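User: Run a structure prediction on this.
Assistant: Running it now.
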Amino acid sequence: MSEHKYYLTPEGEYKLRAELEELTGQRRSELAERLRFAIQQGDLTENANYIAAKEEQAFLEGKILELETILRDAIIVENTGPSDQVRIGSTVVITIDGGDPETFHLVGMKEADPPQRRISHESPIGKALLGKRVGESA
């Protein structure tokens, strides 16, 4: 197990598994076909298609390894329903400086997507919210 803890909601785990399946299946196959085609073109030392495909292959394999590591070491955080305390998986409504209420979903780092209102528990806002109770200021 790695030193870093990866917290995932069940939804986040599902999405990462789907991404891994796509990368190890379809994307890997497409890339292998591109490599075969580039090799058939002859001299590999100055073959731009071959060089580009090899670079993409290295990136793809790195991403696959990253996803496998995250999924292997993940701590799946089940949202067991309403709670009086903010935790990973919680949906919170906050008001910043007297503005309009905003809704956020607190997730692990690998699921964070601020434009979608999914904030990491490691972000400044996430850290401030963790452990707070309804009505408390952060």
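Helices lie at 10-40, 48-73, 124-129.
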